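Narrative of accomplishments. A recurring question from our advisory board has been how the design workflow behaves on a single, concrete structure rather than in aggregate. To address it, we present the structure tokens for one chain from the evaluation set, followed by the sequence designed for it. No filtering or post-editing was applied between the two.
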């Protein structure tokens, strides 16, 4: 059988508002663009602004509207972002994909319909509708059962019906709205904002807003001629990805990165609410009160944040800009100059912490198109040189030192270098403020070879200080890195050697031409075919802090013998050294006496064990007596050693007391 699928009914179209053309565009480097649109709106008509769904958050955050004729703005309407599933859930029916007509009619039981079958039109209320499965006798078919005005129930085959019409006007509108919602969901990217008026007078509207746009890009050409200053040529690359044309707009490009963020204002926001019940609806639970730990806490209401202020550049004077350049292709001859024939008429100015390029002539960029616009072409101070920065390579790079004397901020971007009417290479340049200077590398110089050699010297004592028993010494270690440079070419060159900055080291023998955050830059002049050696000597100073009572005589002797030590300090340290040597000698004597005492004590223990063993053996009395005589002699020796140790310890204590007195008095 033939399956009926519901076709879209005629959709009631909303009245389109008047469009406001784009007048000014300001593009920023952090991914947003500022747009100004203005135009006349007829009496009783709403103005319309079209946006992409992804732009709506920024539009709702930044949109400002002004009526130049003083008419009040009554409000702004815009297409909702509620998802399709949320919009359709409120309808009393649902239309699924490839859904049968009988399924829709069955969900609307009781609705009155007109069913036309041939020349006859039958009216009645829907009792039900169903899809009858296929059998051997009949194919699959749809049936509807109606309650007729006469009270009879009749079943009809929908395949014989040529028209089905719902008689309820409200139900017809619901079906139209359902289909309109589905149609709108298919155009997800397009969103419209309508500006309404409080009265019926004609208006002259001015609207401005910020939306996400691609970052505008810069590219440069640096042209070295045979003589004179080189020429710097700058181009701005812009992309129009909006849903409308930029027709003869005032265009400005801003270099800088103000803070910007996305706040989700377009999507409906819901919050979870607590469920509340009356007290009598539930049993009373026990209440546990927390103990107090302090005084009352004053509740402070948070003040709403002050609205952020925005300032945008106003358009300058508009002049005609001719970007066309005619060239004859009949003859191909070598070019003496690489520079483009352009009219770079972008006016520049400081804009707070930012810098702005404003094109004085109107600019047209169709939607979905991009454009290159010249914003700079003038002489600039630059010199060619070599830079050796990568010590893993034996060759330096061809480079240029650019001094920005254009009076403008040069936005960062790629630089293509032309030398003597030939392509020389490419470089990247960071944003360059007026009067600032920058090095760019654009090639490898194979006519220069560089090798490095590293050497480290011995420690040198720089100074010694002593106070309150603490010896502070400063030592230095010198390290030398020698750059051996070979200029193979028979022409003079200027080489910049970038030597890495090490925070703990200080330069000794050379003064850099300039210093960056990570490197020293030394300038070396190379004669034609010359070999040069350029040593860089650095020194690292480190400090030792020691308590002098813990120093051995050998360590103290190394300080006394150092030539950097002054005579007064040397004599004081010599007295300390002599006293420590005396204490060391006494200490050795104490250790020797203690060792003898320990040996005799072990010998005494051995003799006692032998005596105890022999007493129980017959005929060993004479040997026992011999061991007893040895014990008595050892006891006399032990008594003498104990007296000797006591005297030595007493002497050591006196020497240490004298040492402490010397230390307390010593200072240099």
């Amino acid at each position: 059988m033939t399956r009926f699928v519901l076709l879209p009914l005629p959709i009631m179209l909303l009245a389109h508002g008047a469009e406001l053309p784009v007048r000014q565009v300001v593009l920023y480097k952090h991914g947003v663009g500022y747009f100004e649109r203005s135009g006349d709106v007829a009496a009783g008509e709403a103005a319309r602004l079209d946006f992409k769904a992804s732009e709506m958050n920024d539009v709702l955050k930044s949109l400002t509207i002004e009526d130049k004729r003083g008419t009040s703005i009554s409000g702004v309407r815009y297409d909702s972002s509620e998802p399709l599933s949320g919009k359709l859930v409120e309808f009393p029916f649902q239309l699924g994909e490839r859904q049968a007509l009988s399924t829709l009619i069955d969900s609307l039981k009781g609705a009155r319909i007109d069913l036309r079958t041939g020349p006859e039109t039958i009216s009645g209320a829907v009792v039900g509708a169903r899809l009858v499965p296929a059998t051997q006798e009949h194919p699959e078919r749809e049936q509807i059962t109606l309650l007729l005005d006469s009270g009879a129930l009749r079943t009809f085959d929908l395949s014989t019906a040529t028209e089905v019409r719902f008689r309820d006007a409200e139900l017809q509108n619901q079906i139209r709205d359902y289909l309109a919602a589905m149609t709108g969901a298919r155009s997800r990217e397009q969103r419209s904002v309508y500006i309404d008026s409080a009265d019926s007078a004609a208006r002259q509207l001015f609207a401005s807003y910020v939306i996400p746009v691609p970052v505008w890009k810069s590219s440069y050409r640096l042209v070295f001629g045979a003589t004179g200053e080189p020429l710097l040529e700058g181009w701005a690359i812009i992309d129009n990805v909006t849903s409308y044309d930029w027709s003869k707009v005032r265009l400005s490009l801003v270099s800088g990165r103000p803070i910007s963020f996305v706040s989700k204002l377009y999507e409906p926001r819901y919050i979870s609410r607590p469920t509340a019940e009356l007290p009598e609806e539930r049993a009373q639970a026990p209440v546990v009160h927390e103990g107090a730990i302090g005084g009352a806490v004053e509740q402070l209401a948070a003040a709403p944040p002050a609205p952020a202020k925005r300032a945008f550049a106003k358009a300058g004077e508009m002049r005609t800009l001719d970007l066309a350049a005619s060239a004859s292709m009949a003859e191909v001859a070598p070019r003496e100059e690489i520079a483009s024939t352009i009219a770079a008429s972008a006016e520049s100015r400081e804009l707070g912490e930012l810098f702005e390029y404003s094109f004085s002539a109107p600019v047209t960029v169709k939607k979905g198109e991009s454009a290159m616009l010249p914003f700079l072409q003038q002489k600039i101070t630059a010199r060619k040189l070599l830079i050796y920065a990568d010590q893993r390579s034996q060759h330096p790079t061809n480079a240029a030192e650019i001094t920005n004397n254009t009076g403008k901020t040069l936005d960062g971007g790629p630089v293509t270098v032309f030398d003597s009417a030939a392509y020389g290479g490419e470089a990247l340049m960071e944003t360059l403020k007026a009067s600032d200077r920058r090095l760019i590398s654009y090639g490898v110089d194979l006519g220069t070879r560089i090798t490095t050699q590293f050497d480290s010297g011995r420690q040198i004592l720089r100074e010694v200080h002593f106070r309150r028993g603490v010896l502070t010494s400063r030592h230095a270690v010198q390290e030398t890195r020698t750059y051996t440079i070979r200029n193979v070419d028979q022409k003079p060159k200027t080489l910049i050697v970038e030597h890495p900055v090490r925070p703990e080291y200080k330069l000794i023998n050379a003064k850099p031409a300039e210093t960056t955050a990570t490197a020293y830059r030394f300038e070396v002049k190379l004669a034609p075919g010359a070999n040069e050696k350029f040593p860089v000597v650095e020194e690292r100073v480190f400090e030792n802090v020691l308590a002098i009572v813990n120093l051995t005589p050998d360590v103290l002797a190394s300080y006394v013998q150092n030539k950097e030590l002054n005579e007064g300090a040397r004599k004081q340290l010599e007295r300390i050294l002599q006293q420590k040597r005396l204490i060391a000698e006494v200490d050795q004597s104490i250790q020797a006496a203690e060792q003898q005492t320990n040996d005799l004590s072990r010998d005494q223990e051995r003799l006692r064990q032998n005596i105890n063993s022999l007493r129980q053996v017959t005929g060993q009395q004479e040997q026992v007596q011999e061991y007893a005589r040895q014990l008595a002699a050892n006891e006399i020796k032990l008594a003498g050693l104990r007296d000797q140790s006591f005297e030595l310890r007493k002497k050591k204590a006196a020497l240490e007391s004298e040492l402490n007195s010397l230390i307390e008095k010593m200072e240099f």
